[in-house]
Amino acid sequence: MKFFIDTANLEQIKEMQELGIIDGVTTNPSLLAKEGAEPIEQLVKICQIVDGPVSAEVVGLTTDEMINEARDLAKLAPNIVVKIPMTKEGIKAVKLLEVEGIKTNVTLVFSQNQVLIAAKAGASYISPFIGRLMDNGQNEIDMLWESMEIIRAYDFKSEIIVASVRNARHVIESAKMGAHIATIPFSVLEKMFKHPNTEKGLEVFLKDWEKLQAQLKK
Ligand code: G3P
Question: Fewer CB near the last or first residue (10 Å), C or N of the chain?
């Protein structure tokens, strides 16, 4: 399973990259706005930190606008993947861009039907937003299971990026069903590392070791 980090924050990306557990990055206009930096410069900096795919989202709403923006974004770095919203205009753009060799990530996906349409359009990546489904009181895990079944049933080339991950349990559920990728916020990645018994266990091991050293000196 691949881990992407869902952020446009350079420090967070660097920290997780140094740990060697990050295979890519996803951004969106809100995440870039949070950083307050010039978005194109920020994307270039992100692409310099990671070798894996970096998703950058278009903001145009028509197919033509999306295609033009996507071509510009794709020139920023070889690892740019263009995020396209799950609309009719977006799906038209996905089909044309993939033929052109520009990788797309269909975003704002909330249903199995949308997954199927994006897969048929030939998207390289499809991003179901499971946290927002959960916030809405819908069963996000069932949606993901069925989405994975659809992808596997026809051996679609699209990889599922589990997005809008809210907690560490979401990552476990995604891994259990063999989702290709989870894009995880920094705060959730940090929680995945920790368990109170690891810290307590380490403390006891070190204390016992010191005791033994003291005994041996006597
Ligand atoms: O990758 C999509 C993600 O950024 C959306 O997450 O937390 O805004 O629902 P969220």
Answer: C
The CATH superfamily holding the domain 2-217 is Aldolase class I (3.20.20.70)
The pLDDT, as a whole number, for residue 38 is 98
Q: Tell me, what's the pLDDT at 130?
A: 98
From residue 158, alpha-carbon distances to 39, 67, 111, 115 in Å are 27, 19, 16, 9
Between the alpha carbon of residue 40 and those of residues 9, 25, 44, 72, 138, the distances in Å are 13, 15, 6, 10, 35
In this prediction the pTM is: 0.96
Residue among 7, 135, 164, 188 to mutate when testing ligand 1 (max atoms within 8 A of CB): 164
Q: Which atom of ligand 1 is nearest to the CA of 164?
A: 6
What tens digit of pLDDT does each residue of 122-131 get?
999 999 999 9
